[in-house]
Design a protein that fits this description.
The chain has 380 residues and is of the alpha/beta class. It has ten helices and 20 strands. The longest helix has 14 residues.
Length: 380
């Protein structure tokens, strides 16, 4: 929870980690207090898309790029209707935005949306600490919220852990809506919104897909009421071990053998539906420069990530599941984390990263074409 007055870089601020480490700087954005899981994102660009990504719900994001805010804030690049991060940590905020699309500064937008941040700290040291110790609970305090070190640490340690957190229902759409196909309509897709980014249905619409975005609480009856050619499960926040509803829904989609595509949280849901476990990563993958190999082609892609949990599936063999054979289709080249799954006996696959490239590289755009191919094959 945050409280706010007009942000000012002259107001002292403090970042407190649950292990007692403290960083002192200046207020950035709203003045007040906020709590969340401290994580770092390695993207050098795309902060607006990062801040409005619902997958960052209840997280304090540390920008590893040293200067943030150069391009200001525009009205076109939001991935949802609000900023979702709990707090924002930067080293050197831009004094003046410089971009022809900017409508206001990043600082102004943080204040307008009541997002508490901190600037002027050594984000390199903070990132190294999070890499060594792992992502952890944290709090940012500025203005009248600043108290003694003992008081602030106790408040941080009283916050809930991310492991075991069920958050997808906090960020999902309240009402179903439709994103029409661009040009001639070729397919209909039911997209389960677990924290979907706006660019994702747009990428499908560009391929002639009419996308019906449904709440995370949608039932199988709701999904099949739109007569879908395929079903999509989106990215989203929280621990996939808590997502019993989405797992049950995906299990029904798999039972009906409807073409299926999942990304990020959707990949973890597919893993669970197939009988694999999930686990929390030490510090996760967040940014737009993560190397992933598509094991089906051997090609290496630079990809956009935002996840703190992963699927526990064997890399060295094909697995037998209740829906047929499954294999790990993609793997992270940094640490061998599972980055994709595919079924070999029916049309279903998923990846752990964000092929919509908002923000990020376009190496993985072909995955939407792969989804189209599955629907074409099923129709034939």
């Amino acid at each position: 929870m945050t409280t706010s007055t007009r942000g000012t870089t002259k107001v002292p601020a403090v970042l407190v980690l649950e292990d007692g480490r403290i960083f002192r700087g200046r207020a950035y954005g709203a003045v007040g207090e906020t709590f969340g899981e401290a994580v770092f994102s390695t993207g050098m660009t795309g902060y607006q898309e990062t801040l409005t990504d619902p997958s960052y719900d209840r997280q304090i994001v540390v920008a590893t790029a040293p200067q943030i805010g150069n391009t200001g804030w525009n009205d076109e690049d939001d991935e949802s209707d609000r900023i979702w991060v709990s707090g924002y940590v930067v080293r050197d905020p831009a004094r003046v935005p410089s971009n022809w699309r900017a409508r206001r500064s990043l600082d102004d937008e943080l204040v307008a949306q009541n997002v508490v941040g901190i600037s002027g700290i050594d984000t390199r040291a903070l990132t190294r600490h999070l890499r060594e110790s792992g992502s952890m609970r944290a709090g940012i305090f500025s203005g009248e919220s600043v108290g003694t070190q003992t008081e602030l640490l106790a408040r941080v340690q009283a916050q809930p852990q991310m492991k075991g957190a069920s958050l997808y229902e906090e960020v999902t759409t309240k009402e179903a809506y439709v994103v029409p196909a661009v040009g001639e309509k070729r397919f209909t897709v039911a997209a389960i919104d677990l924290g979907i980014k706006g660019m994702t249905p747009h990428r499908m619409a560009e391929r002639g897909i009419e996308v019906h975005v449904l709440p995370a609480t949608a039932s199988a009856a709701d999904v099949y009421a739109v007569d879908p050619d395929g079903v999509f499960f989106s990215n989203g926040p929280g621990d996939p071990a808590t997502a019993e509803g989405p797992v049950a829904l995906m299990t029904e989609v798999l039972r009906r053998r409807t073409p299926l595509f999942g990304i990020c949280f959707g990949n973890q849901i597919l893993g669970r539906a197939l009988g694999f476990g999930t686990y929390k990563l030490k510090y996760g993958h967040r940014g737009i420069n993560q190397p992933v190999q598509d094991r089906t082609t051997g090609k290496v892609e630079v990809t956009a990530h935002n996840h703190g949990f992963a699927v526990d599936a064997p890399l060295d063999r094909v697995s037998e599941t209740k829906f047929g054979r499954a294999e790990v289709s993609h793997v992270c080249l940094n640490d061998d984390v599972v980055e994709g799954l595919q079924l070999l006996d029916q049309p279903a696959f998923s990846v752990q990263y964000h092929p919509e490239a908002a923000a990020g590289p376009h190496d993985a755009a072909y995955l939407f074409d792969r989804f189209v191919s599955l629907m074409e094959g099923q129709r034939a």
